[in-house]
Design goal:
This protein is an all-alpha fold. The chain has helices at 2-10, 13-21, 24-37, 42-66, 70-77, 79-93, 96-112, 119-167, 184-195, 204-218, 224-252, 264-279, 284-318, 326-347, 352-378, 391-416. The protein has one domain: Amino acid/polyamine transporter I (Up-down Bundle), CATH 1.20.1740. Helix 3 (24-37) crosses helix 11, helix 4 crosses helix 16 and helix 6 (79-93) runs antiparallel to helix 15 (352-378). The longest helix has 49 residues, at 119-167.
């Protein structure tokens, strides 16, 4: 009972991580993995979550021990590290909020049957609403909102999965042949799945900054063991949700012969149509709530995190002191990010796919470097040796770096040749 109370008291960064990570990587990639390749895909989903675990854990560890953001740790290792991370953030953040909100707006229209309103109008409304939530409520309100939203998502998705399993798998079409797992397309999909499961590695700094803010609000920080316990809870929830989405895909789509769209909104609509056909229209609400809660929670946390990261990077590049300035400039950052995202959404929507492709490629290729930077931080003199990662976690980190490096090399080979 005491452990449960401690966990609930410390809920925050791990919960925000879970809500952020379960966006398109879960709704689209996990569901598509089960839909195209069946139950076999549970292996790479678990493998990706295990191998990338240390990179995110280090964001919590560094901040809990030092009281500073991991971005400050990059600067301590050398300004080159900080500039590299700034470039990664710029490349991956310029269109991400616009893309996420446009997907969410499309889901709102498709799932809830809204007529006569464009995706752009709904997206604009979401940006205004999200900005108001973040500016008025700040971190505390965001955390409390997600404490309410994530259980709804988890329950709705669990209910959906139970209904699917209870109904049983669909009957495959005549002469159904599953796609080859180890041909070029299969391997490329596998690389994409692992690269974005549970999320991009640079999000480790988001965890760090959420921890800084939680400790500032509470005026105290929990022991490292308790902080890691809370993160592990969120990380485990993220993994379980990925598996649940995969199960839904495997049970309702694998063998159907349906050609799945690469667009998140269209794909979600396909999943819901097939799901309601398989189970019954009465069950529409469960998958609709699951899909919407998945994307909306990601939009909200992403907007908050990118605002915080941008402030911290600018602060560390501009000054040599250790001032954390988001308290003063957070409102400005939220508004600026919303305005930039709205401009990107309306002015560059035709090229959104290309922008996102470039951003995701940069993030994926440089993921092993960010992982190595995080390892350098937690193995530095900034942390007492007793609080540095143990040998097994270090070995898992090197395994993850090697694995992601090989995937990045192969990805580059396919793209270039």
């Amino acid at each position: 009972m005491n452990k449960t109370k401690t966990l609930l008291k410390n809920l925050g960064p791990g919960l925000l991580f879970a809500s952020m990570a379960i966006g398109t990587s879960h709704l689209v990639l996990s569901t598509k993995a089960g839909a195209q390749y069946g139950w076999l895909m549970v292996i790479p989903i678990i493998l990706a979550n295990v191998l990338k675990y240390p990179f995110f854990e280090f964001g919590i560890r560094y901040t809990n021990v030092t009281g500073k953001s991991i971005i400050e740790g990059y600067r301590n290792r050398g300004r080159g590290f900080l500039w590299l991370y700034a470039l990664i953030t710029l490349a991956t953040s310029i269109a991400t909020p616009a893309a996420l909100v446009s997907i969410t707006a499309g889901l709102v229209i498709n799932l809830f049957g809204i007529q006569g309103v464009s995706i752009g109008t709904v997206a604009l409304g979401l940006f205004v609403f999200n900005s108001a939530i973040l500016i008025i409520g700040k971190y505390k309100f965001l955390e409390n909102t997600l404490k309410f939203l994530i259980p709804i998502l988890f329950i709705a998705l669990l209910a959906t999965t139970v209904l699917v399993i209870n109904k049983g798998p669909i009957t495959p079409i005549t002469n159904f042949q599953p796609p080859q797992f180890f041909d070029e397309l299969g391997v490329l999909f596998l690389i994409t799945l692992i690269g974005w499961m549970p999320t991009a590695v640079e999000a480790s700094s988001w965890l760090s900054l959420w921890s800084v803010e939680k400790y500032r609000i509470n005026t105290t920080k929990p022991p490292l063991r308790e902080a890691l316990q809370e993160f592990n809870f969120g990380y485990l929830m993220t993994t379980i949700l990925a598996i649940l989405f995969m199960v839904i895909g495997a049970m309702t789509l694998f063998g159907s012969g349906t050609e799945l769209s690469g667009r998140a909104v269209t794909f979600a609509d396909q999943v819901i149509q097939l799901f309601t056909t398989h189970i019954g229209s009465w069950a529409h609400i469960f998958i609709a709530v699951s899909a919407f809660a998945t994307m909306y929670s990601t939009c909200l946390t992403c907007h908050d995190a990118i605002s915080r990261v941008s402030i911290d990077i600018i602060d560390k590049l501009a000054s040599e002191n250790n001032t954390y300035t988001d308290k003063k400039y957070y409102t400005m950052a939220v508004i600026i990010l919303a305005v930039i995202s709205i401009v990107v959404l309306f002015a560059l929507s035709a090229n959104m796919g290309l922008i996102i492709s470039v951003a995701t490629a940069v993030s994926f290729v440089l993921a092993p470097i960010v992982g190595y930077m995080n390892l350098k931080n937690v193995m530095s003199s900034d942390l007492p040796e007793v609080l540095q990662p143990h040998k097994r976690l270090q070995l898992l980190t090197y395994a993850g770096i090697l694995f992601l490096s090989l995937l990045a090399i192969y990805y580059g080979w396919i793209v270039l040749f």
